[in-house]
Specification:
Largest sheet: none
Structural class: mainly alpha
Strand content: under 5%
Shape: rod-shaped
Order of helices and strands: HH
Radius of gyration: 17 Å
Number of helices: 2
């Protein structure tokens, strides 16, 4: 279960990184420039949050693995 949590954490980080790099392409071009910039900033912020959650989740899974190894 802890390994699955680590895998999910890595996936979250990679999705956040992809979203950060692709934010400009993911925003609809039909929006006016101001709304487009605002939407792009919101998407980049969201991708940073996903990356941070991924890192935290990975740290917790590593801590869980270390706890299990030390406890033996």
């Amino acid at each position: 279960m802890i390994y699955l949590t680590g895998a999910v954490a890595i996936c979250l980080f990679l999705i956040g990184r992809w979203g950060s790099h692709q934010a400009a392409e993911l925003v609809p071009s039909a929006l006016d420039p101001e709304a487009r910039e605002k939407k792009e900033r919101v998407m980049r912020r969201g991708s940073w949050v996903i990356q941070i959650v991924g890192v935290l989740l990975f740290c917790f899974s590593v801590a869980g693995i270390v706890y299990l190894v030390v406890r033996r």
